[in-house]
Amino acid sequence: VQLVESGGGLVQAGGSLRLSCSASGFTFDDYGIGWFHQAPGKEREGVSCISSSDGSTYYANSVKGRFTISSDNAKNTVYLQMNNLKPEDTAVYYCAVQILGRDSRCQIIDTYEYDYWGQGTQVTVSS
Predict the structure, then answer these.
(1) pLDDT digits (tens, 9 = 90+) for 85-105
(2) How far is CA 120 from the centre of its chain?
(3) Which of the residues 11, 73, 103, 118 could staple to 5 if both were Cys, CB 3.0 to 4.6 A apart?
(4) What is the Cα–Cα distance from 14 to 36, expressed in whole angstroms?
(5) Which residues contact 114 (CB under 8 A, 6 or more apart)?
(6) How far apart are CA 52 and CA 56, in angstroms?
C-alpha cells in the first residue's frame, strides 16, 4: 500500500489549498481515507475522512464549513479542499487508510485504527 500526499505549501490567512492523496497497492472492499494533521509538539489529530461504502464524510469541529473532502475513484485520489485557512491550521498533513468492516464508516478519533500512512505534506499559514 502506498499513499502519497501533495499540495501543501505556504499561504496567507484566509487563503486556500487543495491537498491530494494518491493511493495505490490495495484492493480492500470497504475502507476509509482519513486526513490528519500534526503541529510541532502536538499529537496527531483527525481532520476529516471519507468512507468507500457510501461516500459518507466526517469532519473535525475545527474545520467544519472550511474544509471539504472528496474522492475521485477513477484516479484513486482523495482531496482535501481547505478554504479560509487560519494560522492554527499550520501542521504536517497526513492521509491514511482505515480498513473497515462491511458497510462500516470511517472515523478520525483514533489514529491507531488506521493501517497505512503517507509521508505527509507541510501546510503553513501565515498571519
Answers:
(1) 999 999 999 999 999 988 899
(2) 10
(3) 118
(4) 20
(5) 34, 36, 96, 97, 98
(6) 8
